[in-house]
Structure formats: structure tokens, C-alpha cells
Structures
1.
Amino acid sequence: MHDTIRPKLQATAALLALALLPFAQTPAQAADLPRENIVLKSAIAVDPQQNTVVLPLYKGSAAGKTVYYILADASDKTVAQSLGLNYAPSIGKAYTQTASGAPQSLTFAGAPIFSSGRVYKSSATGFPPAQANPGSVADDSYSPFVRLPDGTTLDAPIIASGAGPFDVTTHRNTADRVLAIDTEKKTVTILLAHGFFNGARVVYLSTDASDPGVATIERATYTKKLAQSSPASEQAIITLANGQTGKDNPQAQGLAYLALDEQLSQPAVLSDSASFGSPLNIIATFAAGPGAAGYTPLWAANVGVWSKAAVAGGQNVRLTSITQVFALAGKGEITSPDGKPLGPAGPVVNCPVVAFIDTIH
């Protein structure tokens, strides 16, 4: 960062840090998780059982219209610390849009359109779907990653548009994971995703995907141009297509399980948030523990398919680490959908991490 910019930024950071003290000092009982488990420090409350996180809500504009957004990650460590965000230096190499203004009141070049109405219709096997249409679609100028004039990149997904009232039932003017918005208190409640890192249970957001089918599954904004991000900005996320199914099955995991057992076809609502499950994906890095140095919210999707022999033998059990997955891939027990060795499938997703449930080793 240029020396002429840093003093101003540090002064701003000090003021922001003071403003964020209520978040930092929120008692542990305000969230089911202890504060030390929450890596996205600006989070006001995290409830893994109800699958919810409450975050600060920011008001901005795009093309002269009011939009609301969240902040999750920053490429500059000072900015990340001052705003209570995850530090993710490699997002500077993601596909970005330009933005102006302070981080808390951004003017964006582009925005999502939330009015299309999400549709997921399962096939007999759950996945692949019979039909998948995302509920929100980015315009040609939009990316959740915004580059500020000083060179800092923020992960600032737009999650609602307009003056309200906001539709948090069928999501015609909000993102599909938005469960509640309070513009007076400046908070938003968002549906969490559950997954694994290095054997530990973790929770994260899922805001954008470069593929329409993936966006539908993730309840995310279809943001095609994310695929233009540099591979240097990405890490791997593993999703399994044909793991075991069954709502109460402790070995259940993957896309078929999500479609058949976890209300994937239904719109997410706050009153029933605990019943909306996740495919229990496996991520390669996390913003705490041994993966912190390489953390990025931008994940390259690797879709794994268990072999017919593994499925027949009941070996398609729940996996919780990248090491497990690639050990099995090396034996040919897990492949890409086309039968080739497991690797990036093409889509990328923006999934900022929020907290860990189990201790990260």
C-alpha cells in the first residue's frame, strides 16, 4: 500500500475499531458459539443449530438504486482487522468490480437482479436435478469482490435491493439465503452452510457461484464472471455427488442427500431455518489454524463421484478432510463425474467462512 495512503487508512481503522467494540464485546451467550470460535469477528450472533448468522448490514447504491450488502473478507490486513473481516490477500486476484466510497457506504458498478425466482426440481436420484434455475442473477458489471481506489479488495456481496419491504419468504428482492433484514438496527440474518475443514465442523456463507446450477444448489447469486478469476485466488472445495442419503443417517453427505433429505427445493425461511441442511462440503483452507495463511473465500468446485463398487460396498461414508478425499481418489474410489481423476470442475463459488464448531488442528 502506498505510504501516502497508509496514515489516512490507519486513522480510519482506529475509528472503525472503536465503532466495532460492541461486536467484539458481545457476551458469549449472544451466540451459541463462543466468541473465540467465530473468525468473522463482525458477526453479531452465530447459531449452528438454527443455521443462522446475524451480520452488520450496509447500505449502498448501484446504478442510482439502493442496495444492501455485507462485508466478509479484505485483501489488506489492516482493513480486515479494523472491520472485523477475514484476511484473504489472494482475493486481490479474483474477478472484481470497481467501487467508490467508504467500505460502509459503497457505490457499486453492478448489482444482482433478485426477481427471477429460484427453482430446484429433484430427479429420482436427487442429483443431477430435473430443473435448476437460480433466484438471483448478476448483471454484466457485478462481482461480490470490489476494488477500492487504494487497491484494497473487499468481499462485499449485495444481498438485497430497493427500499423494502423485503421479501424474505420467496426472496423476490433479497438473496435466497437472507432470512431477515432490519434496516433500522442495520442487521441481516443469513442461512449458514455447514462443512468440514481438516476433520473439524465449520460454518460458512455461500453468496455467489459462476455456474447457474451450482448457484441454485447453493442458494447463491449466479455471477458468471467469477469464472474469470485467477486460479491463484482460489482453493479447492469438494462436494460429493453420490454419498449416502437419509435424514438421520450419520454417514449422509453430498448432493443427492441435500436434494432428497434437506429441503433443497423449498425457499429458505427463518421460521424453519434449522431444517435446511447442507451437502457437508470439504474445504481446503480456513481462516484459522493451519490453513489460515492460504485462506480465500473463493473456492474451485471439485465434484467427486464414488465408484459403483464403493457404493455397493457401503464405503461411501462421510468424509471430513481433503486428505481423506484425495487418498480415495488416488485409489480410483472417487473420480470426477466423467470418470477422470478428481479435479476442478470449472465452477467457482464465493463462500466466506464464519466460525468453527470443533477445534481446528
2.
Amino acid sequence: MKSKMPKKIDMVYLWVDGSDPKWKREKDKWLVKFGHKLPNSAQATTDARWRDNDELLYALRSLEQNAPWINHIYIVTGFGQVPKWLDTKHPKITMVPHEKIFPKGALPTFNSEAIEHSVLNIPGLSEYFLYGNDDMMIGQPVAPDYFFDDMGRALVRTNKKMFYKKSAGTASNLYRHIVLSATLKIKQIFGKDYTNLRPPHNIEPCLKSVIISAQKHPELHAQIKQTINNKFRNDNDLSHWIYALYGFATGKYIPAYYRGMRPFMFWRKSTPNTPILARNAKQNKYIDSAKLFCINDTQKSTNSDRRDNAEWLSKKFPKKSSFEK
């Protein structure tokens, strides 16, 4: 049988500079408009959600070093922002303003879920692409078959460790709530129960045709549209995890369990004198060998945490990429 392994795979990153005065003024204006009464507002509006710690610089270094086969890189952002160190004339780089991918009236947005539902509108984006936030990196060399199989199916790294209470149908925070909502939606539509799977919170493989199909589904369309129009994260958002779940249900995506290739997400919760990436020897061993990892800035992170991250990343990826000026 002829292999359907994709020959062209793009990369999409979301990036924002939360220190930009223009951006901050606009964000604060819309927060006032909502009266600071957003559901789960602490999680939806924490500065950590938009803080730029130069993670994208190291994400691009990791990409060039460990996945040089990527066809093209799209960086999605708003307010005319461009990383000061980025060579925007590089032939493999395209900056994508929100105006290019959002419907009229939906902007400005400060909601990453809304952006994630809109990336399929990037002009020129290939059918097969990888998606990641700016703090998601590739730690070891990977080939296309780490993300797609020879039948053209997306291999989504997941595991069976639930992070919400399945029996009660409840979740402990906003992120888990909208993930659970997406899972229950797929169960309602297809009768398939994926509550034992959790999102990787790392670079994910995507098929544009699957996203288009899901967005057109009569039982998903309205909530996706609502999410795209939510200025900030909201408890009625539909997580972009819906696309992997939809892919599982339709046979276009398959779960690829960690099995020694575990992606890691880690952060420090202000533990004195304990660097985020060196809590213990066992964790260091995993981090050094992880093919995918995410450095997740949270409202609990401190300036010291972020300095530790920056120092570790500069040692992990010391070589300047061709995407830098």
C-alpha cells in the first residue's frame, strides 16, 4: 500500500508580548468593559498568560535543531507585534496578524482558545501542520513519523491519567473544565468516551480538513463560534482539544501514548532555592531525554523562576538559529 506520510508539514506558533503598552491598554480597557466579572477571572486574566520570556526564540532554535524538515513557520500575533530579535525576511517565516484569520467583529482578542480555533484560516497553511504555544519545544531530534503515520493520521501524544473527576463530571479549574466539556460533547455526538485521555499540552499534529469538518458540525458550530468571539477565556469556551477528540472519533487521529517518549510540562511554584528544571535527578533525566516539553509560566511563577528558565534554555539551545537577526 502506498504511504500517505505527508510530504509538507508546517508549524504554527501563537505569540504575544504582554509588556507592550498598546496591548496592555487595550486589554485593560476590555477588562473594564467586562467589569472584571469574568468566570474564573484569576485564571483567565493572569499576566502569566501573556508574558513574553523569549520562549519563542528558544522554541525556534529547538525546531531548527531537531525538526529541520518543517516546511514553513507561521507566527500568529496581534497589534502589529513582532519579536525584536526575529528576522521577518527569512523565507520560512510568516507573521500572521489576527486580522488575517478572525471574522469581522471578533477582535481584539485576548483568548488563546479563540485563536486556536482560527489558525485554520492562515493563508497558505498546509493540510498537515503542527501547532504549539511559544513555550512548547522539541528537545530531541524527531522525524515526521513522530507526528503522523504512513496512513496520514495524526499521532497525538496523550496518556490515561485523568485530571478531572469522571464520575462527578467536574473539573478543578477553567482549563480542565473546558477540556472536560469538549470530551463530553464528543461523547454526546459519537457515543465514544475519551474521558480517560488528557491533552498533551505540548506541540500537537493537526489536519486542517478535520478542523474544518468539526467546525461545520451542527452540534459544534455554535459553541466554536461563541468561543471565537469571547475576548477572554470563559467557562463556555470549547477547548481546541475538540479537534483531536473529533479526529479520534472519525479515525483521522489516533492516540499515541507516551511509553518512554513522554512530553513534559514543568514549572516552579516558588520553592526556595529549587531551580525549576533541577528539582531532582530523576526529573533531570526525563527532561534531558524528552522529545517534547513545555515551560509553563503561571500566576505562581516568580521572577527568579523565569530567570532559572532562561538560563537553562540558553544552555539547552545555545546555537543561534537562522531565524534570528
